[in-house]
Amino acid sequence: MAGPTLAQRHLETFLEMLAAERGAANNTQDAYRRDLLDLAGFLARRGESLDAASEDGIRAYLGHLEAAGMAPRTAARRLSAIRQFHRFLYAEGLRADDPTSRLDSPRLGRPLPKIIDTGECDALLAAARLRPAPEGPRLVAIVELLYAGGLRVSELVDLPVHAVTRGSTTLLVRGKGDRERIVPLAESAVTAVGAYMAVRPAFLPKGALRAMAERWLFPSRGADARLTRRRVGQLLKELALQAGLDPARLSPHVLRHAFATHLVDGGADLRSVQRMLGHADIATTQIYTHVADERLSRLVHDHHPMARRGPPDKEG
């Protein structure tokens, strides 16, 4: 029985390097092996080997993936594995060049954020208000701060209790990069936070954790002494079910996206939305103009009578 080929030995050496030097998990190594063996099979049909692949051969492979309908993000992951393998061969002196050095990654585009509409947001709040205290007022405050304040879930759970003062219409938030920003709160959010503060003591743990929990706006009796991001996500999915919504469509970030999109829909200028979201670059905020444009286009397509007509008859 023939032993492993030189290309196979090089592949295994590369995978061993990933495990030893980069701590790659077994699943990661298996994914790299599958991706590189798929390339090897394609190259073999062209008379090339994996470790001696030409730039043209790899380009042809990427074209093959595109023609097969592979998603750009998956193809980009494949190309990343191919790049790393050939950079390893070059660095180890196992080949004299890197055939991937001039290859461009597939254009991924930017996926539009998932959102829910205003009616669905209202349904969530209505469902939260049906919950008895203390859980109900806490849920209402969480939804209001995520949707009416546009907070990231990490910012929500990191809020110290002194971030809100009685009757205040603003919230001091510490976001990414340790940057602070002032978030204006709608009257409904101010009311919700006030109602929650009245029942907040019910969530404070007893014993040694109490002193730690006192500092957080949303304390918890769990080991972290405050709500975790995961628990907030679970609470929202449970609330979605109660409101008759698909829980797969709801997450804390979906509420933040809804906040921004509904502001842009209402005519808010991008600079103001950027400041409220805490985006360092306005290009990040501009995605919400695309969301609004897409929704308007869909609205015209679905409801305008001209859009529902077929193409005009050609004159004979």
From TrEMBL:
- Please report the stretch or stretches of sequence annotated as the Core-binding (CB) domain: 5-90
Can you list the GO cellular component terms from the UniProt entry?
cytoplasm
Fetch the Pfam families from UniProt: Phage_int_SAM_1 (PF02899), Phage_integrase (PF00589)
Superkingdom per UniProt: Bacteria
Q: Domain Tyr recombinase spans what residues?
A: 111-301
Main subcellular location of this protein, as a coarse class:
cytoplasm
Q: Which GO terms describe its biological process?
A: cell division; chromosome segregation; DNA transposition
The entry's localization annotation reads:
Cytoplasm
Report keywords, A-Z: Cell cycle, Cell division, Chromosome partition, Cytoplasm, DNA integration, DNA recombination, DNA-binding
Active site, UniProt feature: 152, 176, 253, 256, 279, 288
Question: One GO molecular function term?
Answer: tyrosine-based site-specific recombinase activity
Signal peptide as annotated in the record: none
Q: Which SUPFAM superfamilies match?
A: DNA breaking-rejoining enzymes
Question: Hey, which family's this protein in?
Answer: Belongs to the 'phage' integrase family. XerD subfamily.
Record function comment: Site-specific tyrosine recombinase, which acts by catalyzing the cutting and rejoining of the recombining DNA molecules. The XerC-XerD complex is essential to convert dimers of the bacterial chromosome into monomers to permit their segregation at cell division. It also contributes to the segregational stability of plasmids.
- PANTHER family documented for this protein: PHAGE INTEGRASE-RELATED (PTHR30349), TYROSINE RECOMBINASE XERD (PTHR30349:SF90)
User: How does this protein assemble?
Assistant: Forms a cyclic heterotetrameric complex composed of two molecules of XerC and two molecules of XerD.
Q: Which HAMAP family match?
A: Recomb_XerC_XerD, Recomb_XerD
Q: What is this protein called?
A: Tyrosine recombinase XerD
Species the sequence originates in? Stella humosa
Q: What is the lineage of its organism?
A: Bacteria, Pseudomonadati, Pseudomonadota, Alphaproteobacteria, Rhodospirillales
